[in-house]
Amino acid sequence: MPKIIQKEVLSENVVKLVIESETIAKSRKAGQFVIVKIGETGERIPLTIADSDPNAGTVTLIIQRVGATSGKLCDLNAGDIVTDMVGPLGKATHVEKIGTIIAAGGGVGIAPMYPIARSFKEAGNKLIAVLAARSKDLIILEKEFKEFADEVVVWTDDGSYGNKGLVTQGIEEIVKREKIDSCIAIGPAVMMKFVALLTKKYNLPTMASLNTIMVDGTGMCGACRISVGGKTKFVCVDGPEFDAHLVDFDEMLKRLNAYKDLEAISYAKYQESLKSK
Amino acid sequence: MPANYKELKKDRMKDWREELRKSKEAKERVQGERVKMPENAPMERNKNFFEVNKGLSEEQARKEAARCLDCPTPTCISGCPVNINIPGFLKEIERGEFLEGARVLKETNALPAVCGRVCPQETQCEVRCIYNKMKKEPVAIGALERWTADYERNTGNISVPEIAEKNNIKVAVVGSGPGGLTVAGELAKLGYDVTIFEALHELGGVLVYGIPEFRLPKEIVRTEISTLEKMGVKLVTNFIVGRTATFEDLSAQGFKAFYIGSGAGLPNFMNIPGENLINIFSSNEYLTRVNLMKAFRFPEYDTPIVRGKSVAVIGGGNTAMDSVRTAKRLGAERAMIIYRRSEKEMPARIEEIHHAKEEGIEFMNLHNPLEYYGDENGRVKQMKLQKMELGAPDSSGRRRPVPIEGSEFMVDVDVVVVGIGTSPNPLIPAALPDLATTRWGTLVVDEATMMTSIPGMFAGGDIVRGGATVILAMGDGKKAADAMHKYLSENK
Question: Could you give the 3-state DSSP secondary structure of residue A257?
Fold first, then answer.
């Protein structure tokens, strides 16, 4: 079973886990995800792979504490076992030389952006990274992006680090400054929605990587379905990347909230169990 | 598959069998009434997930087994996709050798406790029983199969089939559903080194994610799988062949043949307005949450399920029946089947329809949904239905449902489950571009051997049939295992 080799706390609610999995480390490609389940009673959740080391046989996941399952994951430590991890799932990013690309990562979405942005850079593109989050402590992987990106700009909602403002302002400044050929957006659904609205205005092709509710992750259940250009698509097998200009983000945002009340019960129960420990 | 009548005849001519036959006149045997399966009371059981059928008593089983006339040409066997020696095991029950009965069952069926519960015997073995010709109710073969397998399990001493000498030839089985388990059992018996790869975290495929606890307790599936493990079959969960490792990777690791039993795949939706509203689920999702993830025990289990008050299930198959009866058990005041044809055309088993009715399920046959409407949060709250009537038969031979113009009306619903079938999963074909598929996306196989267009790669069950039954998948598995043995013997 997959063992956690290394744990790093990136911020109060964001944790990086390096997990043993020889097979997934070897087979995964940028843009793909895994499904993870903790314990016998756990729920299956999808997590995009942030990095892997085929030689060491490890994959890296970056997790933000938002509910019971992500909370359980964040509270695991080096040496602990991830009960179930399966993948790689989803289609790999189609990487090609396009020209100049903006990679806009929002919050914990910066993590799945990392391997995708790096692949595009390696394919010969000029890569400009726009890293954005609510505040300074939620900006992750800045150092890693600086190692390969042609330019890295940071935006925070509260101005505690980098420029003060939203990711869309960051993108717009660059678009006005120079010719951009393509944009990639990964982050909270609402962030991707507004990036898509902005880039549509500039006719800038934009790809979004979506993280919806899933159960099996192999196409069997359809929990992840969304509308793309008026057609129903499954994020797990048709995606997770789609043309952001065609995605019905309003529908997706609603569907993400499908279990909000029940998730709160689950999370409260988990927090209660921590107290009694 | 044709039964081996020569072997069966030899079996039938054994001294004890002849004696047993003569011990009671046929005239006397046909006097008995078919046994009735004891069931939990409908209005109690529709509030819990315990098994509906309680099983026969020993006395009932022996009495029912004695009804079997032990025909010289047992037509029942030809109706069984895995050719169970039916009179063979029934006569063992009649004479009181119950464990022998179980052994006979397992000669050809790796999962008798499962098949005794979920097989459509009424259209397979029982429909061919001689009693039908006498205008009498057939021998309750399914109930007896179940009883025999349960008897053996309850002794805690389950016989493990004899294994031939190990030949160290590695075979990979993709998917641990009924077909894959059958292939694994058959090939393990012949001495092969078999590994089952399962994508989910639990083994059993549709037996664990699809069929509810109240029809097939998961404990039974686990027991049947543990027998395979005792036979030396290696079990690997959380492994997607084609993704976690490619077919080439596995070939390089020494796997000489593959069986693809990856199952049904993508749920179909009707593509009508409002279908992506919250609380509209595919049957696959609804049942997986409840069965595999145990959402009915939320919050003890983390996976949530929405407990609707007014639940509509679209479809008339076994999956739809499982979904609607699950909805009732989750507390629905109103649980409805919406089916566009009439009850006569329903693909579900008669027993399931009957049980559903007893449990208070409403049947809105000859109705079809046109559109769903949601509240301000995007949750479904109403659906528009249209009444249908039956026209001329279509290509399936069933009368085609025709909409009645102007018959539309609204129904309040807070959960909708769409159970109208599945399309093949694209993961396997995507991993093997050379694999021939039909225009529906199912795999092309040679009907005699179940071999795909790639030599050494066999397939069966829903990925070939596009949606069928547990026992048909097992029949495919059996056929494929024979052919794989032949293939591997010739291609050493």
Answer: coil
| Residues A44, B303: C-beta atoms closer than 8 Å | yes
Q: Which two tokens stand for residue B335?
A: 């649980």
* pTM: predicted TM-score of the whole model, two decimal places: 0.94
Could you please report the per-residue DSSP string of A7-74?
A: EEEEETTEEEEEEE-HHHHHH--TT-EEEEE-STTPPPEEEE--EEETTTTEEEEEEE--SHHHHHHH
Residue B3's pLDDT band (cuts 50, 70, 90): low
**Long-range Cβ contacts of B30-35 (<8 Å, 24+ apart):** B30/B67, B30/B69, B30/B131, B30/B134, B30/B136, B32/B63, B32/B64, B32/B66, B32/B67, B33/B137, B34/B64, B34/B67, B34/B136, B34/B137, B34/B138, B34/B139, B34/B140, B35/B60, B35/B61, B35/B63, B35/B64, B35/B140, B35/B143
Chain A residues within 8 A of B378 when measuring between CB atoms? 251, 254-255, 257
| pLDDT for residue B344 | 92
Q: A71: distance to nearest CA of chain B, Å?
A: 12
pLDDT at site B1: 45
Interface test with B, best of A81, A221, A273 (most B CBs within 10 A): A221
Nearest to B276 among A215, A225, A265 (CB): A225
Question: A232 touching B, CB under 8 A?
Answer: yes
Which chain B residues have a beta carbon less than 8 Å from that of A88? 243-244
Interchain CB contact of B304 with A (< 8 Å): yes
Percent of chain A having pLDDT more than 70? 100
User: What does the block give as tokens for A64?
Assistant: 């933000």
- Please tell me the number of Cα atoms within 13 Å of A264 on its side-chain side: 4
Considering chain B, what is the average pLDDT of its residues?
A: 93
**CB A85 to CB B238 under 8 A?**
yes
Of all residues in chain B, what percent carry a pLDDT higher than 70? 99
Q: Which two tokens stand for residue B126?
A: 């029982």
- In which band, very low, low, confident or very high, does the pLDDT at B157 lie, cut at 50, 70 and 90? confident
Q: Binning pLDDT at 50, 70 and 90, where does residue B396 land?
A: confident
